[in-house]
Amino acid sequence: MDELKFRREAYENPNRQDDEFLASMHESSERTAFVNDLKLLDKKLEAALKVEVPEDLEAKLLLNQQLHQHQVERRKTGFTLALVASIAFIAGISFTLLRLAPVDLGQHALAHVYHEEMAMKSERNISVDEVNTQLASLTSLNHARFTEQPGRVLYSTYCDFQGVKSIHLVMQGKQGKVTLFIVPLEDRMVLEEAFADNRYQGMGFKSDNAYVLLVGEDVTDLNFVRDEVKESFI
Amino acid sequence: MFSVIRNKKPKKSVNRDMLNKQRRYDSLVRALHGDLFRYAFWLCGDKHIAEDITQETFLRAWRSLESLKDDKAAKAWLITILRRENARRFERKQFDYSDVEQADIADHISASSEESMEQHMLRRQIAKLEAEYREPLILQVIGGFSGEEIADILDLNRNTVMTRLFRARNQLKEILDDTQTRGRSNG
């Protein structure tokens, strides 16, 4: 190995251990001294490069990671919470919008009659006072009431017309029973004067303060009850 | 019955994975934080910035610990992350550092009483060395990397790395010999 190459290699790495380098190092004492000189420089360099490491750095690094992990977990729960909240929000909005949608009173009345089959089986005798008490509790009806007993009332309860509290009565017609709904006036209600499906007939009219809907199997019954109600209900 | 078993198993293994990851991270920090801090210090020349860079580096390492397949390569992997973090620092601050920084470095390395004058002088000279010469030298001397490994980390070819190592030692030795002879003639 010529001098130039040897020196170059020594400068590149004085600690190299390959046979060729070691052999040419031992060729002369000058070369050995030269390499030892460089090795000494490397020792000094190593000492100089090893600056003091802050004592608490290790602890800081470990703590930092723990905090980071903690934050990631919190962010995850935060995200879940946000997701749940927005779902609840959407549900709330759509529910409100649904309630604002126009209500077809006739169809609703029919559905209600089917839903409360047991109302038709009631055979009680309910006084006009009892019905009036119930009517009075619905403030949106503006004190609408019956002035006298409107024939025989077999059943009376509150019911829900798309979120509007209403009164559900069953009255005795000439032959069969007639279901009567008294619904407070509201803009989104759509009233049909006559409606029907294959089993029931229905009719509706508007009094001063309320919609009145009648549902029964026979038209003569309906007309009978309607006349009675129109006379007594104000 | 089934759902209980199904729910329990993955939870356990997730916990075990987390624990393994934690242990791996802890041992990396213990074994390598000193070398990384020193490397960062010689890159930026400031102890506080070096600490910040080291922290950023380990945080990034934690996030992508899964991508480190071979633990023997951990040091080179961490140094690669650290160099990227250091470069990011320059992207953020868009003014020219080269002149200011060199002067800064010299000031930051103060001679403490137990530190020999020679070591203090050597530190100043290392700091004054151009970064492209300094980096391979640090990787070789305190990182213990071979020429190929340094070439890999710095994304250079091996011959360039060897040339730079040669020049770095050459420059330092010349300065050192110079001051020694001058010292002698003065004394």
Topology (elements, then pairings):
The complex is a heterodimer of chains A (234) and B (187).
Chain A: H1 3-12, H2 19-25, H3 29-49, H4 57-100, E1 103-104, H5 105-115, H6 128-137, E2 153-161, E3 164-172, E4 177-184, E5 189-190, E6 194-196, E7 201-206, E8 210-216, H7 219-232
Parallel strand pairs in A: 1-5
Antiparallel strand pairs in A: 2-3, 3-4, 4-8, 6-7, 7-8
Chain B: H1 2-44, H2 47-63, H3 74-92, H4 98-108, H5 117-128, H6 131-141, H7 147-154, H8 158-186
Helix pairs in contact in B: 1-2, 1-3, 2-3, 4-5, 6-8, 7-8
Q: Can you offer a commentary on this structure?
A:
The complex is a heterodimer of chains A (234) and B (187). Chain A has helices at 3-12, 19-25, 29-49, 57-100, 105-115, 128-137, 219-232, and strands at residues 103-104, 153-161, 164-172, 177-184, 189-190, 194-196, 201-206, 210-216. Chain A has 234 residues and is α+β, with helices and mostly antiparallel strands. Chain A folds into 2 domains: 3-49, no CATH class; 103-232, Protein Transport Mog1p, Chain A (3-Layer(aba) Sandwich), CATH 3.40.1000. In chain A, a hairpin with a 3-residue loop joins strand 7 and strand 8. In chain A, 28% of the residues are buried. The model of chain B is unreliable at 99-104 (pLDDT under 50). With 187 residues, chain B is mainly alpha-helical. Chain B has 2 domains: 10-94, RNA polymerase sigma factor, region 2, helix turn helix motif (Rna Polymerase Sigma Factor, Chain: A); 129-187, Arc Repressor Mutant, subunit A, CATH 1.10.10. Chain B contains 8 helices and no strands. The interface between A and B is medium-sized, with 27 and 36 residues.
